[in-house]
Each structure stands twice: as structure tokens, then as C-alpha cells.
Design a protein that fits this description.
Layout lengths: L20 H14 L6 E2 L2 E2 L6 H13 L3 H26 L2 H12 L2 H7 L4 H22 L2 H18 L2 H16 L11 H23 L2 H17 L11 H8 L7 H17 L11 H21 L12 H16 L3 H4 L1 H32 L8 H18 L3 H26 L5 H11 L5 E5 L5 H6 L4 E3 L2 H8 L5 E6 H10 L5 E7 L6 H6 L8 E6 L2
Parallel strand pairs: 3-4, 3-5
Antiparallel strand pairs: 1-2, 5-7, 6-7
Helix pairs in contact: 1-2, 2-3, 3-4, 3-6, 4-14, 6-7, 6-8, 7-8, 7-9, 8-13, 12-13, 12-14, 13-14, 16-17, 17-18
Length: 547
């Protein structure tokens, strides 16, 4: 519980993050305002490309606690806590209690999980549902329990309502190849697939039927073909990312645990190979250590390959793979600590020491960067220096413990440092808000804009402007688009970067009146970050008007 405590600190303080969170908070607010709980909405229009479950959960939270950032994020916070708990139960089933505890701890302290838990993103909801589906289906299969199988299929049905067919594809992609590769195809009937289909359809089909009744048969084609097949094959209008995009993404967002993944895969290979090619006596539903590792490896490998082949790539898509990755690393921790052949092998020791050296260097570099940020942005706020101090001490501690061959101490120091780091960053959130401009700029617009005035943004994606102004907003990414609004005869309020204000005035001759400008910390490129010496060096975001 101490590990999970920092998740609740200042959860409602930060303004909405414009990278996706705004859509999943403003949408339920508009649905509540319109009295329509059936069709997702955003920017005062129907949004037919998203399933409904996350909207319903946030709507329920709004009904209980009122409309606020904290009420919306409470849903995802609970999903994250549940993911940690289900990861532990799955770890007990597959690997044993020690590895299960480490796996839950690794999930809880992964940077990406920590970030998502503080933002209303449906990927956290999908993650707990996929993990629960895998756990309950395996439990039901092992124990011949129809009730547990029902829970597993119910999680898949809810997964469809959370994020479409991924709710079925990801757990099926873990379990079906596992049965095939471990020569258990005859066991498929014990999963009661007919019963499972009825449960999944019983949960997911009613909402899709109502949406089809309201919007016509074209809705189903648009949702399942357009938002699944076409999006997977052709992507969206965003930037195309290479096949290997998720490799550095995983390395950074699952760090520092991601550095142990190669060692984890190597230590898992021997028991996995035995599970894949060996023949065991007794019930085929008995899961050995090798079986458990094989399932986790297939789950992680299938998901990584599936998302890598997709043209549409987003960082959050990998989140449902984190429980599998965490449990693989947890097994490596247990294997290194044990006096068995795997733990004593020269290759394991060498790999562990190399990994420790890499992690120590990365932590020291991160400590240096955080110290630079604290000096530049929060020179008079002592708490801002805590993250750099924690990482620096942790780097030295794990380097010394690794050299003395104290694996348990190494991982304990690393986990403790991540917990303290999380709490420190959470305490810094109120200070960071001064460098997030959209909410204060939106408040200025609400005070000055009339009912007929136009509000929007230019080359600065800020969908949270819709939430904070409580009005429809426009998007403009080309000067010609903005010129049309400027000459519409209405007063226009537009949020844009200060450099774009200058370009529009000097190059395109638009008459711009600047009302307010605020420094912006996000996004900040590494080159700009290195040159940062004071808050005035940050890029500024402004409100401009045509009158």
C-alpha cells in the first residue's frame, strides 16, 4: 500500500493533458450536459470512433463527485491499482508468491504506468481488463471453474466496450498460441468457447445494437472496418512511425526495469524450452514454471509484434503488455537470487553486472538532467532538488550493491527510489502548473468572449480548451484556415505559440492583438532543455484576437 500511496497525491491538481486526456474528460462532460449516455461526444459533436465504457465510468464518477479533473482521473487510478492487484494474483498462479510480489511492485513503479494513472486514458482500463481476462481464463481452465471462466469472458466483453476488438485479440493472442505451442489444443474445450462467446456478446452487443439503431448500419462498418482494419493497415493522418518504434519507447517508458528484460528473457529460456518441447505426466492443465514463463513470453511477444506491424502507433498501446513484462523481470530477480544453476551461472552474473552498470549510468545522467531542470525552473523551491538527489544516491547504491553481489538489495534500492521519486514528482505538480498555459488562458477567454465569438487554436493542439471554455472550438493548422476565421466578421480568440504570432503578422500580414502570454514547459525538446537557464527561456503560448 505504501507503494500505491503516491498515486493519490495531487491527482486533481494538474490541468488536463492535451495528449488524449482532454477527449476522455470533455466527452463525458458533454454527454452529461446533453443528457445522452449512449453516444460518445467531443467538441459538441458526436464522436463515433470510440467505444463507450470509459465514458460511462467517468460519467458515473461525475455523478458521484461532480465534474472535475480529479473525478475523471479517479476512474483510471482505480484501474491502475486493480492492475497491480491482478498482476500479483496472476504471478502467484504462474510463478509463485515471491515473483508475484516483485511483478506487482515493478508494474506499480513503471514510469509509464505512473504517468497514465494520473491521466484519464482508456489504455489503463484496457490493461486491467486484458490482465483480468488472462488470469480468470487460466484459473477457470485449471480449476474447471465455470464461474472463473465467466469472469474472464466478462473481462473480454468489457474490453470490447473499452477499446474495441483489442479486448479480445490481446488475451486470445496470449492464450491460444500458448495452448498450441505446449501441445494442449485438446484442452480448448475446457475453456468453453461457446459459453464464452455468449458472455462476450451478451455484454458488448447491446450497446452496438443501440448505436446501430440510432446511427444506421454504416456505423458498424465505420467502427469495425474503419477504426480497426483501416487504422491498423493505413494509420491515421498523424506522423508515420517505423516498425522498430516500440523498442526505444519500451526502453524509456518501462525504465529502469526495461534494462533487465534481455537478462529476463535469457533466464526464462531454459524452462520455457522444456515447457514447449517436453512431455509431462499427469493433467495437461497443470502449469509448471516453464509453462508460466512461456505464457508470459507469448503474451509479451505477440502484443509487441502485433502493435509493431500496425501502421498506427501510439506510446500507450504497449501498456497492456506491462504486466507480462513485469512478471518476466520478476522471475529474473528470483532466479538471480536463488542458489540454483541459473542463479550461479557465469552468463547470468555477467549479464546482471552489465545491466547494473547501464542502469547506474542512466540514473546518474537522469539525476544530472533533473538537477539542471530544478536550477532553471524552481531555483527557490528546495523540494525540486529531491528527485535528482534520490536518483544520484540510488545509482551509487545499486552500483555498490551489484559489485558486492547483493541482488535483492539492488532491486530493493531501485524500487524504493522509484516510489520516492514518484512521490516527489507528485508534490511538484502544483509548481509545474505555472508552466502549463492552457487553463489560465482559457479562463481569460471565458471572461472576455461573447456567445457568438469564435474560439480555437492554431498549430498548437489544445483540445482541453474545449473543456475549460465550455464551448465549441476550431482547429487551424494552415495560415489560410486561420485567415478565413479572421475575416469571418466575428471576434476571434485563438491560442498559438508566440513564434507563430510573429510569423502571421510579418509574413502573412494578419492584424493580431495579443491579450496574454504564458510560458510552456510541454513539449520541450532536448536541445531546448539543455539550453534552458531560466523560466524566461521557455517558449510562450499566447491568446490573440482580431479586435
Amino acid at each position: 500500500m505504501l507503494v500505491l500511496l503516491p498515486y493519490s497525491l495531487y491527482i486533481g491538481t494538474p490541468s488536463l493533458w492535451d495528449a488524449n486526456e482532454a477527449f476522455y474528460v470533455e466527452g463525458p462532460r458533454e454527454m452529461r450536459e446533453a443528457g445522452d449516455w449512449l453516444t460518445p461526444r467531443f467538441n459538441f459533436a458526436e464522436k463515433l470512433n470510440k467505444p463507450i465504457l470509459s465514458y460511462w465510468l467517468v460519467l458515473l464518477s461525475f455523478e458521484l463527485f461532480g465534474v472535475s479533473e480529479g473525478a475523471a482521473r479517479a476512474v483510471i487510478l482505480l484501474c491502475t491499482v486493480a492492475t497491480v492487484g491482478v498482476t500479483y494474483r496472476l504471478g502467484v498462479l504462474l510463478l509463485g508468491r515471491t515473483s508475484a510480489l516483485w511483478g506487482a511492485l515493478i508494474v506499480a513503479t513503471s514510469p509509464k504506468v505512473i504517468m497514465v494513472a494520473r491521466r484519464s486514458l482508456i489504455d489503463a482500463l484496457l490493461t486491467v481488463l486484458v490482465t483480468a481476462a488472462v488470469y480468470f481464463l487460466l484459473c477457470g481452465w485449471q480449476r474447471r471453474s465455470r464461474l472463473r471462466l465467466g469472469f474472464g469472458y466478462a473481462a473480454m466483453g468489457l474490453g470490447v466496450l473499452a477499446k474495441g476488438l483489442l479486448g479480445i485479440i490481446l488475451p486470445a493472442g496470449a492464450i491460444a498460441p500458448f495452448l498450441l505451442l505446449t501441445r494442449r489444443l485438446a484442452e480448448v474445450k475446457r475453456f468453453r468457447p461457446g459459453f464464452g462467446a455468449l458472455v462476450v456478446l451478451g455484454i458488448a452487443a447491446p450497446w452496438f445494437a443501440l448505436m446501430t439503431w440510432r446511427h444506421g448500419w454504416g456505423y458498424l462498418a465505420s467502427f469495425f472496418v474503419g477504426e480497426h482494419v483501416n487504422r491498423y493497415l493505413h494509420g491515421t493522418h498523424g506522423a508515420r512511425r517505423p516498425f522498430w518504434y516500440y523498442m526505444p519507447t519500451l526502453l524509456g517508458e518501462f525504465a529502469p526495469w526495461s534494462f533487465f528484460l534481455p537478462l529476463a528473457l535469457a533466464l526464462a529460456w531454459t524452462p520455457v524450452r522444456s515447457a514447449l518441447v517436453g512431455r509431462r505426466e499427469g493433467s495437461r492443465s497443470d502449469l509448471s514454471l516453464g509453462d508460466g514463463l512461456a505464457l508470459l513470453l507469448i503474451w509479451f511477444g505477440f502484443g509487441l509484434a502485433f502493435f509493431s506491424f500496425s501502421t498506427a502507433k501510439q506510446n500507450e498501446y504497449l501498456l497492456p503488455l506491462y504486466p507480462a513484462a513485469a512478471l518476466l523481470v520478476a522471475h529474473a530477480i528470483s532466479a538471480i537470487e536463488s542458489p540454483t544453476e541459473a542463479g550461479r551461472s557465469t552468463h547470468a552474473r555477467r549479464g546482471f553486472l552489465i545491466t547494473i552498470a547501464a542502469v547506474s549510468v542512466v540514473l546518474l545522467v537522469a539525476a544530472h538532467l533533473l538537477l539542471h531542470a530544478a536550477r532553471a525552473l524552481f531555483p527557490d523551491y528546495p523540494l525540486a532538488y529531491v528527485p535528482a538527489f534520490v536518483l544520484g544516491v540510488a545509482a551509487l547504491g545499486i552500483a555498490w550493491s551489484g559489485w558486492r553481489w547483493r541482488p535483492r538489495r539492488v532491486f530493493g534500492i531501485l524500487a524504493a527510489a522509484l516510489v520516492v521519486l514518484h512521490a516527489s514528482f507528485a508534490a511538484l505538480l502544483p509548481e509545474i502548473e505555472r508552466y502549463r498555459p492552457v487553463r489560465p488562458l482559457a479562463e481569460r477567454i471565458r471572461r472576455e468572449a461573447g456567445a457568438e465569438d469564435l474560439v480555437g487554436y492554431y498549430r498548437y493542439t489544445a483540445p482541453s480548451l474545449c473543456y475549460y471554455t465550455r464551448r465549441k472550438i476550431f482547429e487551424a493548422f494552415a495560415p489560410e484556415e486561420l485567415r478565413d476565421h479572421w475575416r469571418s466578421g466575428k471576434r476571434v480568440f485563438c491560442v498559438m505559440r508566440e513564434r507563430d504570432v510573429r510569423e502571421l503578422a510579418e509574413r502573412y500580414g494578419l492584424a493580431l492583438r495579443t491579450l496574454d502570454c504564458r510560458p510552456s514547459l510541454f513539449p520541450l525538446r532536448m536541445r531546448e532543455f539543455v539550453r534552458l537557464r531560466r523560466p524566461d527561456d521557455l517558449e510562450r503560448v499566447c491568446i490573440v484576437t482580431n479586435r
